[in-house]
Design a protein that fits this description.
Elements (H helix, E strand, L loop, with lengths): L8 E6 L5 H13 L3 E6 L9 H8 L15 H8 L2 E7 L1 H8 L6 H8 L4 E5 L3 H5 L1 H12 L3 E2 L3 E4 L5 E5 L3 H13 L12 E6 L4 E2 L5 E2 L6 H12 L3 E6 L11 E5 L3 H11 L5 E4 L6 E3 L22 E3 L3 H10 L8 E8 L7 H12 L3 E6 L10 E8 L4 E8 H18 L3
Parallel strand pairs: 1-2, 1-3, 3-4, 4-5, 8-11, 8-13, 11-12, 13-16, 16-17
Antiparallel strand pairs: 6-7, 9-10, 14-15, 17-18, 18-19
Helix pairs in contact: 1-2, 1-8, 3-5, 4-7, 9-13
Length: 420
Amino acid sequence: MEPKRIPKRIVVGVAGGIAAYKAATVVRQLTEAGHSVRVIPTESALRFVGAATFEALSGNPVHTDVWTDVHEVPHVRLGQQADLVVVAPATADVLARAATGRADDLLTATLLTARCPVMFVPAMHTEMWLHPATVDNVATLRRRGAVVLEPASGRLTGADTGPGRMPEPEEIATLAQLLLDRPDALPHDLAGVKAVVTAGGTREPIDPVRFIGNRSSGKQGYAVARVMAQRGAEVTLIAGNTVGLDDPAGVHVVRIGSAAQLKDAVSKHAPEAHVLVMAAAVADFRPAQVHTSKIKKSADPDVAPPPIELTRTDDVLAGAVRARADGQLPNMRAIVGFAAETGDANGDVLTYARAKLRRKGCDLLVVNAVGEKRAFEVDTNDGWLLAADGAETALEHGSKTLMASRIVDAIVALLQNHGG
């Protein structure tokens, strides 16, 4: 069941960059979610997207200066009344003006009066993003409590590529909703932390056509990787079957197929990591024999198909715990497992989850009760967070991004307890 969302008032600032065209989709997604959106572009932004587009999408008037509707004092009221301000794209110029407290147009004046969460979504060339002036301005804004997202890497204006690309509109809208649900969900508290996150289901081949798989979409693992990256971590995401999911901004993605490939990828990347989050749905079994050609169906309906003998796959999570105990993961401070469980006549979900935590030996175990329209292939989740010290915390129902933020909170607490 989707959580009921309360409509909020959102200001979307749009600066003058080629990525301004993506802001139109951000506005559409936020309005379709039921929120009241007011768009405040800069004058240069209107060279890329006209005011009529934003007015049609938001249903509200669009102005750039403080002189229109002066009796309503818009340069004060818009910021005072907003539940969230999103600046997308946030160019180097807007970041600089915001960091120095300029108020020379309606957008920057609104930023000065806003007392709600403010999220800047940078978009600029790599050289501008990495310039010491921009680095200092971003640090200043974060120190003051603003959220400045990590940009994506990819195609920029012209033939250039690199970090500085604006994240996709769906990711921006997702993080905006997270800040509406939890205004303190994205502190920049994981700087210097290296994390490996696994996500999605593995596929164990039977023959060149068929495989054994599972229903995992990878959405929860992607959400954890996205939140960790936006909280400052350097994240490597090892992704199995995650059809239709866009790579999270600021995250290095490694593609795998089978459980054996996932094990190899974790073994390669975990030694440098401080955190390992095993959110992937790794197959417990694989075919003992992989046929080199497609298994043919007999024309005779009475001929039974050949049996498929299964053998166990390696337990990647338990292997990582052992490797840490043996000193092979010298930097590792937190290992997080995931358990998709069902109850039966011998015990409920938590009974099996507690036994799994003891068996695996990880620091934290995220437990989901699975079933029809639960956990797999949906956008929401709930469950429990079990800790090795015996603590158990219920994770309330909500978006997978909201759940990811609470999981990351627990990881941060674990790192702090270990002096990291």
